[in-house]
Amino acid sequence: MLAGCAVKPVRHVRGQMVNSITMKSGEVNAGLLELILTAPGFPTEMVNNLLVPPCADLTHLDALTGLTGLVWLNISGLDNLVNVDDLGALANLKQLTLSRCKKLENIDALANLTALVDVDLYGCKRLRSIDGLAN
Known about the structure:
By secondary structure, the protein is mainly β. 6% of the residues lie in helices and 23% in strands. The protein contains one helix and six strands; from the N terminus they run E-E-H-E-E-E-E. It has a six-stranded mixed beta sheet with strand order 1-2-3-4-5-6, with no helix packed on it. Strand 2, helix 1 and strand 3 form a beta-alpha-beta unit. The termini are far apart.
């Protein structure tokens, strides 16, 4: 297991294992996140919850595009995140927390997420438009 990251079973739902990834604050960086999520054999389709603590060097979310089963995502406090274009493919996402992403300007890609019912944008001071939430 990699330092700063734990992958643990949460519960069984109709016989299938549901996984959650929790990363410890201060030990996360963009390289570690990408390494974990793109590791050969990593069950990306099984992950439905992801909590990424504040991480100053995380500027894009392309490592998350393979998490097709993701339902809940908390990526608060990503100081250098400007847009969420990489989240547009997460069709099952229902809850998204982007609070305190101080440089976030664009959420247009969220328009593709028809399952999305709860979005937290508290403290996203540079956000210019919420057109991505029109649907």
